[in-house]
Specification:
The protein is of the alpha+beta class. The protein folds into 2 domains: 49 residues, no CATH class; 79 residues, Ribosomal Protein L30, Chain: A. It is built from 4 helices and 3 strands. A 3-stranded antiparallel sheet has the order 2-1-3. Helix 2 packs across helix 3. The radius of gyration is 22 Å and the shape is elongated. The structure holds L-tyrosinamide. The site of L-tyrosinamide has 13 residues, from strand 1, helix 2 and helix 3. L-tyrosinamide binds next to strand 1, helix 2 and helix 3.
């Protein structure tokens, strides 16, 4: 049985996430190794070069209406901050207009941003959460 090399481009019609690509590459390597172990075929491959996923910065923005304790509860609940750290970030946003909640891989940053938007909307507060690359 022959498989494409781990470096081969797979013709797919959908776009793959960073994680899907890594899983695909690892699966191809595993199949190549299984083949060579059973003695049926030897596939040359380069050493694995899996890079770290790019991180996205997630920020909260200030507004005049969202209560401070709600922002603290968001920082604790969505961003797993301690009460002291959550209060520090909330005050940073309140005094300077924005504050960093953390750096996360794209899908995690998106999920946290959506979670903040949903909770704020649910409570009727105008709290805004944004993400930036790097
Ligand atoms: N400025 C808000 C107030 O005075 C508090 C606040 C802090 C709102 C941080 C949003 O991201 C925010 N109630």
């Amino acid at each position: 049985m022959s498989y494409p090399s781990p470096q081969a481009k797979i013709p797919v019609s959908c776009s793959l996430s960073h994680y899907d690509e890594i899983v695909l590459q690892e699966s191809l390597k595993f199949m190549a190794e299984s083949d060579s172990e059973s003695g049926t075929k030897t596939i040359q491959r380069e050493k694995s070069k899996v890079s770290e996923p790019p991180l996205y910065k997630v920020l909260l923005l200030n507004d005049d209406y969202t209560p401070m304790d709600f922002v603290v509860s968001i920082l604790e609940g969505v961003f797993q901050k301690t009460p002291a750290e959550a209060t520090r970030i909330m005050l940073q946003v309140h005094n300077n207009g924005s504050g960093v909640c953390g750096f996360y891989p794209k899908e995690i940053a998106e999920a946290k941003t959506v979670a903040v938007d949903q909770r704020a909307k649910q409570e009727g507060f105008p709290l805004k959460c944004v993400m930036e690359q790097g």
